[in-house]
């Protein structure tokens, strides 16, 4: 693996899931792989799980870790080519990416979308610019349109918990007071098409994700019908893709409850708004996998970092 920008960078997803589960059994087995290597974790946006789990993953492999909150701790970065930098930005990505590449062996990035300019968000300017001007591999820690570390984590968690060869997995939209990105549902939908599951998406009309990503996945507007016989229910809010970034519904009847999911396991990437996305009774029950999911973030990141370290550096 040369980089981990999106799920297309995975050669064999089933093998990668197996490797991550093995790493979880013995996390310090490959402590030499990252010796004398450094990862730079660069955040344009907030994080709890991604920051700590990626740091832990790197440390488990013997790497050094440098972390920077680029919006608050560094110079304002300019991404436009040929721009006259007479306003708020003080340093161009051309210099910044080249300089950072001299300090670290892998650059990991988190950069959320604007949710106001679909074209610009889909260009993935931050990730693409670092790819262009950095001389080291890039790791996506959630970009405008994708969260591939989360999706790998989710696939690992389903693999660990499935009771049948081909479980039914339902991605359900749930209400949220703020407009949220599409990165998590996009990557989850893509991942579910890569592994052997019976995958269904449910959301109110008007919340269709990018059809190029959902492909042939069945979309059922009746949540109860979609959830019938589910083995795993993955809840997530996202804003409208068609009416880009808008909140079209805050219908609380879409909140996930125990009555709705029956015996199914509950999944969410976290952070989650209790009694908005999902009822306390679900999160506090033994059907909830959210803590296990968050733990698996470490081993997903560790499996990816190990591939990059062994095959590229
Ligand atoms: N799931 C996830 O990416 O969590 P953080 O935003 O806290 O990193």
Quickly name the level 1 CATH class of the largest domain.
Alpha Beta
How is the main sheet built? 5 strands, parallel
The CATH level-2 architecture of the largest domain is identified as 3-Layer(aba) Sandwich
| Overall pLDDT confidence | 97
CA radius of gyration = 20 Å
Count of all domains: 2
Number of helices: 13
Helicity, as a percent range = 25-40%
CATH fold title of the largest domain: Rossmann fold
Straight-line distance between termini: 10 Å
Output the CATH homologous superfamily of the largest domain: Aspartate/ornithine carbamoyltransferase
How many strands in all?
11
The strands making up the biggest β-sheet line up spatially as 9-8-7-10-11
Unreliable stretches covering 5 or more consecutive residues: none
Report on this structure.
By secondary structure, the chain is of the alpha/beta class. It has two domains: 7-146 and 297-310, Aspartate/ornithine carbamoyltransferase (Rossmann fold); 149-293, Aspartate/ornithine carbamoyltransferase (Rossmann fold, 3-Layer(aba) Sandwich). 38% of the residues lie in helices and 14% in strands. It contains 13 helices and eleven strands. It has a five-stranded parallel β-sheet. Strands 2-1-5-6 form a four-stranded parallel β-sheet, sandwiched between helices. Strands 3-4 form a two-stranded parallel ribbon. β7 (168-173), α8 and β8 form a beta-alpha-beta unit. The longest helix has 22 residues, at 290-311. The chain is globular. The protein binds phosphoric acid mono(formamide)ester. The site of phosphoric acid mono(formamide)ester has 9 residues, from α2.
């Amino acid at each position: 693996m040369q980089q981990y920008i999106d799920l297309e960078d995975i050669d064999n997803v089933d093998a990668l899931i197996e490797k991550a589960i093995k790493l979880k059994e013995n996390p310090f087995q490959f402590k030499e792989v990252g010796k004398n290597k450094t990862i730079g974790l660069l955040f344009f946006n907030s994080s709890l799980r991604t920051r700590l789990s990626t740091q832990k993953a790197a440390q488990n492999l013997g790497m050094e870790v440098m972390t920077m909150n680029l919006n608050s701790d560094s110079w304002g970065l300019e991404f436009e080519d040929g721009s006259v930098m007479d306003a708020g930005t003080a340093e161009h990505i051309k210099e910044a990416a080249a300089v950072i590449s001299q300090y670290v062996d892998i650059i990991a990035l988190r950069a959320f979308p604007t949710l106001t300019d679909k074209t610009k968000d889909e260009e993935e300017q931050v990730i693409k610019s670092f790819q262009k001007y950095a001389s080291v591999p890039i790791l996506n820690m959630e970009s405008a349109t994708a969260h591939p570390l989360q999706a790998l984590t989710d696939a690992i968690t389903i693999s660990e918990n499935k009771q049948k060869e081909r479980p039914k997995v339902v991605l359900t939209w749930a209400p949220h007071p703020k407009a949220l990105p599409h990165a998590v549902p996009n990557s989850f939908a893509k991942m579910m098409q890569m592994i052997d599951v019976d995958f269904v998406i449910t959301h109110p009309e008007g919340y269709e994700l990018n059809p190029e990503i959902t492909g042939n996945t069945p979309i059922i507007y009746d949540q109860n019908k979609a959830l019938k016989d589910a083995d795993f229910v993955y809840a997530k809010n996202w804003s409208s893709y068609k009416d880009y970034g808008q909140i079209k519904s805050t219908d609380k009847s879409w909140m996930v409850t125990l009555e709705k999911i029956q015996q199914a396991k509950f999944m969410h990437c976290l952070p989650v708004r209790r009694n908005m996305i999902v009822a306390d009774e679900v999160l506090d029950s033994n059907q909830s996998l959210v803590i296990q999911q968050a733990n698996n973030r470490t081993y997903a990141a560790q499996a990816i970092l190990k591939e990059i370290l062994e095959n590229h550096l």
